[in-house]
Known about the structure:
The structure is a single chain. By secondary structure, this protein is of the alpha/beta class. It has 2 domains: 7-125 and 256-342, FAD/NAD(P)-binding domain; 129-253, FAD/NAD(P)-binding domain. It has helices at residues 18-29, 45-49, 67-78, 165-175, 197-208, 304-322, 337-342, and strands spanning 7-14, 34-37, 55-56, 65-66, 84-86, 93-96, 102-105, 110-118, 124-127, 143-144, 157-161, 183-188, 212-216, 218-225, 228-235, 241-245, 248-251, 255-258, 269-270, 273-275, 288-290, 295-296. The strands form 6 sheets. Strands 1, 2, 5, 6, 7, 8 and 21 form a 7-stranded mixed β-sheet that branches. Strands 10-17-11-12-13 form a 5-stranded parallel β-sheet. A 3-stranded antiparallel β-sheet has the order 14-15-16, with no helix packed on it. The longest helix is centred in the last third of the chain and has 19 residues, at 304-322. The N and C termini lie far apart (50 Å). The relative contact order is 0.16. The site of flavin-adenine dinucleotide has 37 residues, from helix 1, helix 2, strand 9 and helix 6.
Amino acid sequence: MPQAAIIATDALVIGAGPVGLFQVFQLGLQGIQTQVVDVLDQAGGQCIELYPDKPIYDIPALPYSTGRDLTQRLLDQVAPFKPTFHFKQQVSQLLRQPDGRWQVSTPQQQFLTRTLFIAAGVGAFVPKELKVEGLAAFTGSQLFYRLPNPEQIKGRNMVVLGGEDAAVDNAIAMTESPHQAVSVTLVHRRDVLQASPQALEKLAQLRASGHIKFVAGQITGIETRGDRLTAIAVSTPDNQTLNLPLDALLVNQGISPKLGPVAQWGLVMERKQLSVDPASFATSEAGIYAVGDINSYPGKKKLIVCGFHEATLAAFAAASYLNPQASGVLQYTTSSALLQQRLGIKPV
Ligand code: FAD
């Protein structure tokens, strides 16, 4: 893959989850511009991938939000600092340069950064693949791991595989505008599904009205004609094999986080987490900080609010690392003209 020109920056954040986003905000207050890299195609991390529509009740001063709302609010909050997002890129390599900067590489891009913030959570999310002979060849055309665009569903016979929130929510979405599939069949190994009570109630209604068909079983084979996938074979709990014709298959068997390359970067770790100093969230390497679910220190709790605190102290630490002469005096956004100027707030 062709590489773009190297981007030199003062700060790079790996991970656009809630903590990575708040890290961008806190660095912005310190006057530090950021580049952000995430392997996903959008910001939000676990909040978007695992529970976009579920409630969160423990964000300070926000009695209720969903994963999606919280992500949008964080994106609004960082907007004045104009971070550059690089989505669909996994950071694979990290090398220290002789001048002390870090060379950070993805397959598409190289960065040279003076400080690095690892907000990689529980790792990069990868959908669990369905391993059936010959099926992988249809990935992206008739086999999907995320809800495809409406035009890839409208007027089609869809099969959804899975028994949890994503599978149930997506099967329901396919019956509704703008997706409007001709038929939707949900396949799961048994007729016991794990989803929100509202989703299960809606599914029960759609099953009763014939808009969604449910089949208990496992996909064991495929049928093709020319270069088209035409049907799947489902073996049922009573040892029958059903042939289900289809236009496309959505597999929602869950996603699993892969810590992946983070573990190879030579940073001190403890049980798959990066060890940090809780006064600064610095890792074992100068200029590299770890915040959010990826780090470990005495008393660590994997909560968003804890990650926000960590990002705040890491930004202060990075500001004095980048500019040891800086006063490091605490300023309030309420009263500091400098912080308000950085936030783009016009003086009244
Ligand atoms: P993440 O949200 O995991 O984001 C990390 C990002 O880094 C991901 O987008 C990933 O793609 C990216 N990434 C990883 N490795 C790489 C790489 N090498 N290159 C590029 N990108 C990479 N917490 C609460 O405080 N309150 C709650 O009510 C709550 N409810 C929850 C409900 C559920 C079902 C779950 C699963 C978690 C819940 N949590 C809750 C926990 C909360 O979601 C996490 O603490 C939070 O998401 C951690 O944020 P993060 O930014 O550290 O990591």
